Amino acid sequence: MADAETEAKKDDGEGEKKFGQYPLIRMTDLPNETKPEIVEMISATVERNSMDLQNACKLIKEHMDKTYGSSWNVIIGEAFGFEVSYLKRHLLYMFTLGTLGVLVWKCG
Amino acid sequence: MPPKGPKGAGGGGGGGKRRGKGRRDDDEYGGYARKEQQLSKPPDQEKLTETQMKQDVQRYLVTLDPTVVRDRVRWDFNERAYLIVPYQDETITLFHMDSKLVHKDHAEEFKKTYPYPMVPRKQAKQLDKQLQESYKKTEPAPAPVTAAAPPTTEAQASVDAEGEGEEKKSDAKPEEEEEEKEEPKEVTRQTKFLNQFDYSDRSTQTYNNPLREHVCQTQPPPRSNYKDYCNAWIIYDAYENDVENRPKQGKQHGGGAELGAIGEELGEQVAGAPAGEDGNPQTPEKEKEKKEKKEAVRKERDKEGKIHEKERVRMRKASVLEGQAAQEAALNKSAEGLKILERLVMQNVHHEVLFDFKYYEDASDEFRETGEGTILPLWKFAYDRAKRLHVTGISWSQSEPDMFAVSYGSFSFTHPITDGMVLVWSLRNPAFPEQIWVSPRGCMCVAVHPEANCLVAVGMYDGNVAMIQLKPDEDNATSSVVLKNVHVIQKHRSPIWSVKWGEDDMDGDPNFYSCGLDGRIIHWTIDTSDSNGVGGLGGTEICILHLPVAPVTGPDGTSYKLFGCARVLAFHPKEKTTFLVGTAEGNIFRCSSLYGSRFQQIYNAHFLPVAALEWNYYHKDVFISCSEDWTIKIWDKKDPEPMYVFEIGVAILDCCWAPYSSTVFAAVTEEGKTLVYDLNVNKEKPICCQQIVTKKKVKPHRIQFNPYYPILCVGDDRGQLTTLKLSPNLRILPKDSRGAPMEGDSKITFEIGKMAKLLSLVRDPESITNPKSLARPDEKQVKIVLSAMGKK
């Protein structure tokens, strides 16, 4: 876990901003080519729909399904625990907006 | 029956209005305006409701003759019963024709049964016309028609006589129609007509491969599980960690993974790069600033921009360092090429000298009767930082014929120059030394290891020794491994005058000996048991030179044994344990490294310090010594008196044997002259005496022969080295009976013989042996002679 953490920190490509203002990847399995675009898309969608997270989830899920194949699952929340089975190279767990955690994975 | 029909007879209701004929009849009667007739119903007419009146009643017209009796019976006598007489139809068929007209609504249904294509009437007529024309064009046109016709007639032979003609026609018509239908497709009469006689259907079914099921399932893409929590504190911690780790990473990323630590070093080492020098002091400042910023409140937006910029600046600086490092790396790679390039340039610049070195032979030597020779100055080696230093030692490398190490220091003890250096030169590059090793103290002597020519032993002014390992591909000697003596006690306490390599010991480690003014000879080996792990040189004293003088009483009454101040050290080339030490008092001690307290022999050689001492390369008993007391002496080790003495009249500063002959040696005088003697040619006078350096200004201190080339190297007190080429007379090589130069063992024996002969001449001038005889004088005989002569 700690390894994933430190690895994740290096992955962050954004500039240094104040707390929580930038998306921070906690754990990811995504290939390096697609990771930044996905992270950007997710953070933009969440920011836009910060009032209606359900809609944000829906948009993210539909976008991912369209672009990367079917059956993505999206969870956005402030406090949750989870255990998921995911297809390898198709998992992203990141924090955004200071309080939100976004979990996106594909399975099936 | 009146045509009108009874109005009441259930007819079409309506009344008279509907019957148009009635109307007209009325009008024919002269306009009799008929008023609207009312229905006059007979009283017994059935009363019907409106709906019933409006009902349609169907009436059929049939051809049945109502008067015909149908159920007529007749007595049959056979049956004895009445039998019904079958009704005979009274109709007579006058004309019968199969009609081709089909109600257009039923056309579709009819088409199914009718096998021939149907064409609308108008089109049929057009097609007919076309057909007629085509008939006229082509001959066989009518044939098929006629051909078709007879079969039809034949076919129809059995048909009803009445319908014959019509059937023929009817058959012909479909043919025509078929032909017409065919027309639009192609005018030619080649096509086959689809009629029931000509056309036959034949169908086959190809073999269809049986269907088979094949199921395959790929490996599902790999999956794994992941579980975690998402909480406010987890998020907060993650962000905090990220922010903390960020600056370290920034620095690392900027410097490059492998250059992170080296980057700052490079900043120091790379002298000329301004960014490197600036980088070092600035980066710590920047780090401090960063920390301050971190501690402050981070939530302002303008801070964000600044941090961005700082990072960018750091990245840029790091990239500059990186660039420098890359440049360095590139330079190092091309270093070899550059070196070769440099040498080539030198070769071109000094090409005349090079040619002289290689090919020039002084032709005038042949004409010199006295066998004199000349020495030709070749290159001059000078290093600007060594200009003010004296050349204190020259050592040619035994394995590399063009390499030699020179130590620079100072001989003037009244004004000592504190620093010194060791330079390794190559004949190929007279402009710049191959290796530079700077020493904070003056270097007094240098020796290149005979086998491993990357090892150089240096003795220094303060009594320290160092062993340098020269790396072949790096110019900066800080990268070369230097071992220095670490011990404080086990070392010389005074300047070291000579270092000489010894044989590799049992472990194969190199070791050397040094002698210093304190009269000790110390044997140095690599001491790996050092505390700091680097390893140094550990020395063991093997010999103390006690003067053969009675102990002197000191000021407080204790008696001291006087030590000789060793000046030169010379190891026997064959017997590795025997060595000679020349002292500042002018004595020469012959010692053995095996036992240190006693020496084998003392020679009272000179009155002034012995300047140089060297064993003969061939004859194992002969050595040469020279001193500032104007003499050069050649000794036989057995004899306490020298064999040959040469009074030069000037202080001799250095002398050495030639490696190619047992009877040739060279010496440098204080005046700046170089003398070359060949005892075989002339026992009294030098065969060459030449001024090398300017008189009175420069003093040559050292002279050494190159082991391979006929070259001398003379070092003077201006830090300059002069290489000189020996003319042929000076290097007469022995020739065997065939005239070819002698090599190998035969040469050695010849040389030995030469020397021996010379020695014997000295010992016993009367008994002149045949010069051609190579036999050594009898030992016993010599001794007898000597004893007879008595010691001088």
UniProtKB/TrEMBL annotation, chain A:
Cellular localisation: Cytoplasm, Cytoskeleton, Cilium axoneme
InterPro entries for this protein: DLC_sf (IPR037177), Dynein_light_chain_typ-1/2 (IPR001372)
GO biological process, one term: microtubule-based process
UniProt keyword Cytoplasm, yes or no: yes
UniProt-annotated stretches for the region Disordered: 1-20
UniProt KW keywords: Cell projection, Cilium, Cytoplasm, Cytoskeleton, Dynein, Microtubule, Motor protein
Biased composition (Basic and acidic residues): 1-19
Pfam families found in the cross-reference section: Dynein_light
One cellular component (GO) term of this entry: dynein complex
PANTHER family: DYNEIN AXONEMAL LIGHT CHAIN 4, DYNEIN LIGHT CHAIN
Quaternary context: Consists of at least two heavy chains and a number of intermediate and light chains.
Function: Force generating protein of respiratory cilia. Produces force towards the minus ends of microtubules. Dynein has ATPase activity.
Protein family according to the UniProt entry: Belongs to the dynein light chain family.
Protein name: Dynein light chain
From TrEMBL, chain B:
Keywords assigned by UniProt, alphabetized: Cell projection, Cytoplasm, Cytoskeleton, Dynein, Microtubule, Motor protein, Repeat, WD repeat
GO MF term (any one): dynein heavy chain binding
InterPro entries xrefs: Dynein_IC, WD40/YVTN_repeat-like_dom_sf, WD40_repeat_dom_sf, WD40_rpt
Matches recorded under SUPFAM superfamilies: WD40 repeat-like (SSF50978)
GO BP terms, alphabetized: cilium movement; outer dynein arm assembly
UniProt KW Repeat keyword: yes
Pfam families: WD40
PROSITE patterns referenced in this protein's UniProt entry, alphabetically: WD_REPEATS_2
Compositional bias annotation for Low complexity: 144-155
Bias kind Basic and acidic residues: ranges: 33-49, 125-139, 284-306
Record field: compositional bias (Polar residues): 190-209
Region (Disordered): 1-51, 121-223, 271-306
Swiss-Prot/TrEMBL WD repeat ranges: 603-645
Transmembrane segments: none
GO CC terms in record: microtubule; outer dynein arm
UniProt-annotated location(s): Cytoplasm, Cytoskeleton, Cilium axoneme
PANTHER family in the record: DYNEIN AXONEMAL INTERMEDIATE CHAIN 1, DYNEIN INTERMEDIATE CHAIN
Family recorded in the similarity comment: Belongs to the dynein intermediate chain family.
Protein name per Swiss-Prot or TrEMBL: Dynein intermediate chain 1, axonemal
Lineage: Eukaryota, Metazoa, Ecdysozoa, Arthropoda, Hexapoda
